[in-house]
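Morning F.,

Quick status update on the modeling queue. The single chain you submitted on Monday has been processed. Sequence for confirmation:
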Amino acid sequence: MKNQTNKQRKKLQGLAHRATAEGIISISSKGTGYVAIETGKNKQPDLEIDFKHLNTALHGDLVEIILHSKGRDSFRHGGARQTAEVLKIISRAKMRFVGVLETSPDLRDLGPTPNLPSPLRRGAGGEVFFLKPDDIKMYTDILIPKEALWR
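Structure tokens below.
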């Protein structure tokens, strides 16, 4: 932890004191996630997870979540729902997807690509393939390296 900045260290310390839980995530066609948490005999209202806090979770995945504090941003739409954030994906519900395979001659056509693996980054050259899933609950396309297509 020697290389962490003070800001990162404070964020991790803050997360250590917040409640976490596990559950199956359901994702709406608009990209908002919901996780149902059962505590004993009582069923709590589903926790809402904003698109920006999904952290690559897909519909049906088993995820670990962290509850947001009940500050001004944690309740939306008249205070109806507690919000949360996906910390990690424990297990994927699906590993095979059906959709339309499309190609782009260059990544510049796809817009910003900061988190792509090196074979897919700008300037890597070559065609880029991506799957546009048929499932309306899939909120993202899946990038596929050319060498992985014909395995």
